[in-house]
Amino acid sequence: MNINISELDAKLKLNKLKVGVLGATGMVGQRFLSLLAGHPWYEVSVVAASSRSEGKTYEEAVGNRWKMPVPVPHSIKNLKVMNVNKIEEVAGMADFVFSAVDMTKDEIRDIEEAYARTETPVVSNNSAHRWTKDVPMVIPEVNPEHFEVIKLQKKRLGTNKGFIAVKPNCSVQSYVPVLAAWKEFEPYEVVVTTYQAISGAGKTFEEWPEMIENIIPYIGGEEEKSEKEPLRIFGKVEKEGIVPAKLPVISCQCVRVPVLNGHTAAVFVKLRKKADKKLLIKKLAEYKGAAQELKLPSAPNEFIKYMEDNDRPQVKLDVDFEKGMGVTVGRLREDAVYDWKFIGLSHNTLRGAAGGALLCAELLTSQGYIY
Fold it and tell me: Helix, strand, or coil here: 83?
């Protein structure tokens, strides 16, 4: 199903695919729009949100709630916001859509399937379909083979072109790539604590002053996602859908910290097969996937960077590594209880949210699923 990437790139630069953003006024929707401005393959043709925003220009609808560090893209400002629930109308204006809608899980499942049934591919940032057996949940460098399950999903939905694909939770991005890079050493037990930025809750410090000089040792649902989603990522495509892996067993605590962007993870890991520090670092530096091999537009050249300084990675210095699409790792050392421990850092709204979904869309396009 793969397409010649050079030919595809040339073709799409001349005739870009039309993209819709569902939930366009929220923080993740805003991030999608900022990333799509000037994208070589895609152009935003429709923005959709709740009925409260319907009929307004995007600039009017978002008002003073724009939270990105760059201005509202000029090409988006005057687009009329559509009602996300007018599915046929919105879908008719796009070749595929990104979903960042703010609804209940049941509502999200229903609306994303409804869009898919209009023969519109849906690439979702939401968690509602992450455990639907025939919906792939993909980190492009780690488990791109899971896109194969789309053919099963299309049979269930009765579609030729429409489907749903999702990206995993932002909290797993700073350590799952490391475990993937060490797969040959068979990680079987992991303890992790994540220190998560407030933008993961869609907030800024102006909106959440209680977070200044504070931590909150609870993020609803996050620990369960952090423990279970990696097993689905490491699972296999079988005839009934994705079957999660049984290992590694993961125990996680998630803490909200006074940081705007960037999720940091402190990780302890046991390996069945021994490896020395030099080899483990070499595996991180060499690790890459289809996104790098194809040189997709949003792919980081260097996916995982190991930092030798004892005080790295740091959010202020390293969260924007590879435009926020890379993962930085440091402080790898042997442990008295576990075999190894390390610190990982990833950008939660770029690699962990809209950027990760955009990279999934690029890989799906390169494989002929989105066209």
Answer: strand
